[in-house]
Amino acid sequence: MMTASVFVGTSLDGFIARPGGELDWLPAGGGEPHGYDEFIAGVDAIVIGRNTFETVLTFGAWPYGDKRVVVLSHHQLDLSLAGAAVVEQMAGPPADIVSRLAASGAHRLYVDGGITIQEFLRAGLIQRLIVTRVPVLIGAGIPLFGTLPHDIRLRHVTTRHFPSGLVQTEYQVLA
Questions:
Q1: Which of 60, 170, 44 is nearest to 107 (CA)?
Q2: Are the C-beta atoms of 47 and 102 separated by less than 8 Å?
Q3: What's the half-sphere exposure (Cβ side, CA atoms, 13 Å) at 145?
Q4: Are the beta carbons of 160 and 32 closer than 8 angstroms?
Q5: Gap between the Cα atoms of 140 and 16, Å rounded
Q6: Taking the CB of residue 61, how many other CB atoms lie within 10 A of it?
Q7: pLDDT (tens digit, 9 = 90+) per residue, 24-38?
Q8: What is the pLDDT of residue 31?
């Protein structure tokens, strides 16, 4: 069975990045652990959009280790920019992407990037949401959630808070 999860940070006002994609409002890495390492260890493949791929390339260090990364785009991308990382490109509706990944042996997906998360949610393909709220208001930016064809009901699983003020909540998406 395929499980697709989201692990994402947002400003308190619900943005995952500034309007131009900047992430300068996020706390600097290397501080307190927030469960990302444990989360990423439990996934088979990471699905991101082109914009997220291009942003990740600016990080210096590749954040996904040797995990299989699938970049969604209808335009040809230069995947060699990711160096030795395991990166491939796919295009198509979210259901087709999930089917192709399942057929290749992936069962636990990490879906990341604003547009990609929104498309997979609209398609009913996300089962788990882990949202970490950063105590900052940035006023404008790329929203985590977009328009939906209908309500998506969630079941609260757990909430953790950290000394830095971050608050992380996990939800199960109800079918």
A1: 44
A2: no
A3: 13
A4: no
A5: 10
A6: 7
A7: 998 876 567 889 889
A8: 66
Query: What are the structural domain ranges in the chain?
Result: 3-24+32-173
Angle, CA of 17, 134 and 67, to the nearest 5°? 65
93 to 90, 96, 100, 151: CA distances (angstroms): 10, 5, 11, 21
Q: Among 55, 72, 74, which residue's Cα sits nearest to residue 63?
A: 55
- The predicted pLDDT at position 28 comes to 75
As beta bridge partners, residue 129 has 6, 171
Could you tell me the two tokens for 71? 């970049």
Output the DSSP codes for 20-43: T---TTSPPSSSS--SHHHHHHT-
CATH number for the domain whose boundaries are 3-24+32-173: 3.40.430.10
pTM > 0.85: yes
